[in-house]
Design goal:
Elements: E1 3-6, E2 9-12, H1 15-18, E3 19-27, E4 30-40, E5 62-72, H2 77-81, E6 85-89, H3 105-110, E7 115-119, H4 132-135, H5 141-148, H6 153-166, E8 172-177, H7 179-190, E9 195-201, H8 211-232, H9 235-249, H10 262-265, H11 277-285, E10 289-292, E11 295-298, H12 300-310, H13 316-321, H14 335-340, H15 364-367, H16 375-383, H17 393-397, E12 403-408, H18 416-425, E13 429-434, H19 441-458
Parallel strand pairs: 6-7, 6-8, 8-9, 9-12, 12-13
Antiparallel strand pairs: 1-2, 3-4, 4-5, 5-7, 10-11
Helix pairs in contact: 5-16, 6-7
Length: 461
């Protein structure tokens, strides 16, 4: 049980203290309920790696996990309360659940058959958030790093199972996008009894091997995407090089006071992971330069747009834990930084530097003020060589839970070939392989993608 210290001594927490609904709202065809759950910081695991009955105290300390319930007003309140749950696991790491103001895309499709539980994964949003300010209260860098070891996919699965028990739900359905798909594979590994079916979009994680193999694959994909982009917008090739060389000689500062360096500018390549967002990169670049009395400078309009793309203030966990999502029994040791040496066209000093993807480098923790206080923590996590396994390949090989996954051929974040390797290792997993979408396909045609995957797991077999 979980315990609380009171004036009467230590006593077990009551169910009402573990789960509360603090507000309900109804607007534009949807109903929401705001759920707050008290969960163990450390979930308990058996010797064979399975999640133990989730009322174990696992060390006693608790954190809060927030989730927002969405349902459609096409159902009465009573009807909605009787619908099964669909748990949505967001991408990341470090991404909070979506805040929506109407049911559209995949949520519109899902709300016909489900109540949707939109989880703020631990450390994000309203779930005992983690940033440089809150971590300061955990002690020194060693203590902060140890705390963050409990924020990976296995702990998120533990939260989900704990919450499922509090909601008194039977096995529920899960939709995992990107890193959320990684979490879904951990769920299939360690607590498959909690799952009715699993849908995965752009999120079939490699089940083994060092992190370097991930980045060797994705660097190649990003290089191909750069080439495609510059074929569409050949004039931007000169603009990108011009901006990089300008930043070599002319200090430019964001409104927050931090300097924009050539390598930080390359981070705007995040646009390349989208179907339509990629064209927005062209509009960003056309705003770059402005003439001033002192000569050519980067415009404030351009710099303000870039600030939101290169700062990790809103999701520091993404940078701090990013490589750890590939850590299993060995140190990740700044894998992307090491592999970068094999792809010199991505160096900011290259004659025509390319945009980068989701890779995280040590200099993030020097140049980003939101990350600088976490530099030592990040170094400790990069050096950690005893990460627990995130997947049970034997369990996955005997899987009985229906699983369907959308695999995007040109995905620059989750490599197509590695995804198919994983798909072949999960018994019964069905794939839909498409080149119609990039990594954010669920944002382009979420309704169509959800319906296709849902139809695959519900089809008679």
């Amino acid at each position: 049980m979980l315990w609380r210290l009171s004036e009467q001594g230590v006593r077990p927490l009551r169910v009402a203290e573990l789960h509360s609904i603090r507000a309900r709202h109804e607007f534009r065809g949807l109903r929401t309920a705001e759920h707050y759950f008290t969960v163990p910081l450390k979930h308990s695991w058996s010797d064979n790696g399975r999640l133990i009955n989730h009322d174990a105290d696992g060390g006693g300390e608790t954190i809060t996990v927030f989730a927002r319930e969405y349902s459609s007003t096409d159902h009465t309140v009573k009807e909605a309360a009787e619908l099964p749950w669909l748990l949505f696991l967001q991408g990341g790491p470090g991404g909070r659940g979506n805040r929506v103001t109407s049911l559209a895309g995949w949520m519109k499709a899902a709300a016909k058959d489900f109540r949707i539980l939109m989880l703020d994964q631990r450390g994000t949003g309203l779930s005992t958030p983690v940033d440089r300010l809150s971590l300061a209260g955990r002690g020194d860098a060693v203590e902060q790093a140890e705390y963050l070891t409990h924020f990976r996919a296995d702990s998120i699965v533990g939260d989900a199972e704990f919450i499922r028990g509090l909601l008194k739900s039977g096995p529920w359905s899960v939709l995992g996008q990107s890193f959320g798909g990684f979490c879904a594979l951990s769920y299939l590994s360690f607590a498959p009894e909690g799952l009715r079916e699993v849908l995965i979009t752009g999120g079939l994680a490699p089940l083994h091997g060092p992190a370097e193999r991930v980045y060797r694959a994705t660097f190649k994909r990003v290089a191909e995407r750069n080439a495609e982009y510059f074929r569409w917008y050949p004039e931007d090739r000169q603009t990108v090089t011009r901006i990089a060389r300008h930043l070599d000689t002319q200090p430019e500062f964001l409104a927050s006071g931090e300097q924009l360096t050539p390598e930080r500018f390359q981070m705007v390549g995040s646009f390349l992971g989208g179907n339509t967002r990629v064209d927005s990169l062209h509009y960003l670049l056309e705003d770059a330069f402005i003439d001033t009395p002192s000569g050519e400078r980067l415009s404030e309009l351009f710099l303000e747009q870039v600030r939101g793309l290169v700062s990790r203030a809103a999701n520091p966990l993404y940078a701090v834990l990013h490589e750890s999502i590939y850590g299993q029994g060995q140190a990740t040791d700044w894998a992307a930084w090491k592999v970068l040496e094999e792809f010199p066209e991505f160096l900011p000093s290259a004659e025509e530097p390319l945009f980068t993807g989701e890779m995280v480098y040590p200099w993030y923790f020097e140049q980003d003020p939101a990350l600088a206080p976490l530099r030592e923590v990040a170094e400790l996590l990069a050096a950690k060589n005893d990460w627990k396994p995130l997947y049970d390949t034997r369990q996955l090989a005997t899987n009985t839970v229906p699983v369907a996954a959308a695999v995007y051929k040109d995905d620059i974040y989750v490599d197509h070939d590695l995804s198919l390797e994983t798909a072949a290792a999960v018994r019964g997993l069905q794939t839909w392989i498409t080149d119609d979408f990039h990594h954010d396909g669920i944002g382009e045609d979420g309704e169509g993608i959800f319906r296709r995957l849902f139809g695959m797991v519900r089809a008679p077999r």
